[in-house]
Amino acid sequence: MADDLKRVGIVFTADGQTDFKASLKNVSAELKANQTEFQKTKAAYDEHTTAVKKLTDQYEFFTKQSESYRKKADLLRDSLDELKKKEAENYKVMQEKRAEAERLQKELDALKNSEDADADAVAKKTAEYNKAHGELKKLVSAENDYNAKIAASQANLDAARHPWVNSRKPPQMRRKTSKTALLRLTICRRSSTVFLRRVAVLAVR
Q1: Contact by Cβ (8 Å): 143, 90
Q2: 3-class DSSP state of 166
Q3: Considering the entire predicted model, what is its pTM?
Q4: SS3 content of the chain, % helix, strand, coil (to 5)
Q5: 3-state class (DSSP) for residue 18
Q6: What does the alpha-carbon distance between residue 87 and residue 145 come to, in Å, rounded to a whole number?
Q7: Angle separating helix axes 51-113 and 179-204, nearest 10 degrees
Q8: Are 58 and 170 contacting, i.e. CB atoms less than 8 angstroms apart?
Q9: CA 138 centroid distance within chain
Q10: Inter-axis angle of helices 51-113 and 20-43, to 10 degrees?
Q11: Which of the 8 DSSP states describes residue 174?
């Protein structure tokens, strides 16, 4: 089980919840490792390396990267959902606190405008209002913070869902005349079709 968790790059906290920060770090390292491995593979090419071999290696690399980006997107989506949940909870409390502060403000104004206003009562109501107003300011600040984090998380999720938008697509192989080469080319094209379907599914999730 531990090996499986290490392989997929997901980290859990002591209470079984996903550690998003550590998990994203692992997946990012996985993406970098895939890139390094592919660069080493390309560096080993020589004049005897066939176009079929190169194209096969490219699609294997894109397949690995696609899976890593899928895991990254899943993590970011879960993190985004958690942020939205906390924002909704904060917003509800903020609205309740806003209503409380407005009520206390009206009561304080009424006391101050009363002909028989009691100084102690005004002081007490002022303290209540100041406390509610201070708590409201903290909730508003938290709301702004959540909204900023949600926007950033959504942008990161969109980037992870469409990782190949700005990437150079692998070059098409030149046609070969031999039956063996044509068979290999057909296999590669079928592999590329499967890969593109995976990317399309990832993009709409």
Answers
A1: yes
A2: coil
A3: 0.61
A4: 80, 0, 20
A5: strand
A6: 9
A7: 0
A8: yes
A9: 26
A10: 160
A11: P
Burial 159-179 (b: 16+ CB within 10 A, else e): ebbebeeeeeebeebeeeeee
Residue 55, both tokens: 């194209």
Nearest CA to 93 among 139, 131, 124? 139
103: pLDDT strictly greater than 80: yes
Provide the β-strand partners of residue 18: 12
SS3 for 142? helix
Count H helices and E strands in the chain, helices first.
5, 0
Tokens (6 digits) for 155: 């942008």
H or E stretch at 144: helix 119-161
Q: Which two tokens stand for residue 197?
A: 């379907």
Determine the Cα–Cα distance for residues 106 and 202; give it in Å rounded to an integer.
54
State the pLDDT at residue 87.
95
Instruction: Kindly tell me the burial class for residue 75, based on how many C-beta atoms sit within 10 Å of its own C-beta (0-12, 13-18, 19 or more).
Output: buried
pLDDT in tens, 138-171: 999 999 999 999 999 999 888 887 665 444 444 4
pLDDT of residue 108: 93
47 or 180, higher pLDDT: 47
Give CA–CA dist 13/83, Å, rounded: 18
- For the cut 70, the answer to whether the pLDDT of residue 173 exceeds it is no
Q: What is the spatial distance between Cα 162 and Cα 171, in angstroms, rounded to a whole number?
A: 19
